[in-house]
Amino acid sequence: MVLCIKVPRKNAEKVHEILSNADAFDKNYATVREGEFVYFALKSECELPSFAKLGTKLVQMPLVQRNTHPNSIYDALVEKLTEAELEKLVSSFDILGDIAILEIPEELEKKEKLIADAILKVHRNVKVVAKKAGATSGEFRIRPVKVLAGEKRTTTIYRENGAEFELDINSVYFSSRLGTERKRIATLSKNNENILVLFAGVGPFAVAIAKQKPDAKITAIELNPQAFEYMEKNIARNKCKNITPILGDVRKILADAKFLKSADRVVMPLPKDAPKFLDVVFPVCKKGAIVHLYSFGNSKNPFEEGEKTVLQEAKKAGRKVEIANRRIVRPYSPSTVQVVVDFRLLD
Fold first, then answer.
1. 3-state secondary structure of 251
2. Most C-beta atoms within 10 A of its C-beta, which of 114, 119, 153, 161?
């Protein structure tokens, strides 16, 4: 049994502060929360300060000794942040390769180094901790980051479905949350197809398809010069012989007559703007071609806008289409989801 001080949850932050100042915590045991009470383990020999009118009580509790290696960010920070700060802590974050990317609430900015160090301590595979340092913006949809702890770099190697991707999170867009979708498209693709991957980034869709369907012919187009350089590296890194990378504007490149009715499959993974490019995609599609169109939709009617755009643009292009599949890819915000609509050209 361990000597503890039992505190009403509403007063836990104040008592936590008093105990910290008195160096009375026994850090060998984790703080326990049960119902409306919080239990702080006390050192066996300590001079307790006054807790007048805070509703505290000394009790014995069967606590389990804390692992010297914290199991969670919360455990690593429970003695370093107040109750209010712990409640604001965003415990989920993205990991790309060996880089953790997190959001720091404004109220915790002064404690961001503590939080970053805790992530390094808990997640031993993480070598760099960075925070999102601004909104996604610019022609290439880049979100700036700032390194908080660990090695001073923003480059990493990300592994997914047997492939490796080198990238710089400060100069290219990359989402680790589309791994399942990349695997799905690779599985649907066929070995004899001519496949266009638009807005190809550092090459995740193109490489995923190429590794699974080595006899497919893949053309990957990317506008961002830095992303294009990484795509070339990643094609070589993954020994993909069937990808032709092209640097430039999709609209201008697809205007070349050599692309006219050349594609069996088109992948359009740019949810913010992809629907705006359907007018140049329809002319390059063969009869029977499949297009995978990614877009954002309202969470209440996620597919309505995307399907409406497909039908409108098909009519303008004089092409007949049918919706082959549609699915929610991932939540994006409380009111918005990312969706994909797969449609087939019938003529």
1. helix
2. 119
Residues 154-181 have pLDDT tens digits of 999 999 999 999 999 999 999 999 999 9
**Non-local CB neighbours of 215 within 8 Å, separated by 6+ positions:** 191, 192, 242
| Total number of domains in the chain | 3
Note whether 225 and 200 are within 8 A (CB).
no
Tell me what percent of the chain is helix, strand and coil, each rounded to the nearest 5.
30, 35, 35
d(CA 249, CA 74): 46
Quickly list DSSP for 136-196. -BTTTTB--EEEEEESS--EEEEEETTEEEEEETTTS---GGGHHHHHHHHHH--TT-EEE
> The tokens of 233 are what?
């590296």
Instruction: Reply yes or no on whether the pLDDT at 233 is more than 70.
Output: yes
- Residue 161 included in any domain: no
Distance CA 311, CA 293 (A): 12
Q: Which helix (H) or strand (E) holds 209?
A: helix 204-212
Radius of gyration of the chain (CA): 26
Which CATH number characterizes residue 208's domain?
3.40.50.150
| Co-location of 135 and 212 in the same domain | no
CA angle 48, 50, 52 (to 5 degrees): 145
Residue 195 reports pLDDT greater than 90: yes
pTM of the model: 0.79
- Is the pLDDT confidence value at 46 over 80? no
Q: Which domain holds residue 117?
A: 87-153
User: Considering the domain boundaries, does residue 77 fall inside one?
Assistant: no
Residues 135 and 183 in one domain: no
> Which residue is listed with tokens 């047997």?
162
Please give the C-alpha separations between residue 172 and each of 17, 86, 147, 243, 332, in angstroms, as whole numbers.
43, 32, 16, 20, 19
* Residue 186 in this model has a pLDDT that exceeds 70: yes
The region of weakest confidence among 30-39, 122-131, 251-260 is 30-39
Split at pLDDT 50, 70, 90, the class of 275 is very high
